C-alpha cells in the first residue's frame, strides 16, 4: 500500500486539491437559503471551515506555503468566530509554519553546500 501511495502521490494530491477546490467553490456560490451542502451532521459553515483548514494543510504539505497561509488564516478567523480561542485550527497553522521553516532551512543548506562546491 505504501509503495502505491508513493508511486502515485502527485495524482493523489492533484485529486485532493480538485476536491477541496470544488467544495470551497460550491460553498461560495451556493444559495444558502435552499439546499445545503453537508457532511454527516455538519452544517455548511462547519463544512466550509473543515474544507478551508484541510485545503490549507494540503497546500502546506505540498510546499505551497503562501497559499497555505492564506487558507489557514481564513480557517483560523472562521474558527475563532465560531468557537472562540480554543479550537484545533491553531495546531494546523503551527504545523504549516514548522513545515515552512524546515523547507526554508533545507533550501539554505543546499545553497551553502553549492557555494562551498563553487569555491573548490
TrEMBL record:
Source domain of life: Eukaryota
List, alphabetically, the GO terms of the cellular component aspect: mitochondrion
Renumbered to this chain, the signal peptide range is none
Which InterPro entries does this chain map to? TPR-like_helical_dom_sf
Question: Which named protein is this?
Answer: Kinesin light chain
Record Pfam families? TPR_10
- Species assigned in the record: Oryza brachyantha (malo sina)
Amino acid at each position: 500500500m505504501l509503495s502505491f501511495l508513493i508511486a502515485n502521490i502527485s495524482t493523489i494530491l492533484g485529486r485532493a486539491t480538485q476536491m477541496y477546490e470544488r467544495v470551497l467553490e460550491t460553498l461560495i456560490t451556493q444559495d444558502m437559503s435552499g439546499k445545503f451542502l453537508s457532511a454527516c451532521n455538519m452544517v455548511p459553515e462547519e463544512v466550509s471551515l473543515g474544507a478551508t483548514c484541510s485545503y490549507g494543510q494540503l497546500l502546506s504539505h505540498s510546499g505551497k506555503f503562501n497559499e497555505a497561509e492564506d487558507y489557514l488564516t481564513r480557517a483560523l478567523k472562521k474558527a475563532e468566530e465560531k468557537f472562540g480561542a480554543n479550537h484545533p485550527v491553531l495546531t494546523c497553522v503551527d504545523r504549516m509554519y514548522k513545515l515552512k521553516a524546515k523547507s526554508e532551512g533545507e533550501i539554505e543548506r543546499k545553497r551553502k553546500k553549492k557555494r562551498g562546491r563553487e569555491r573548490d
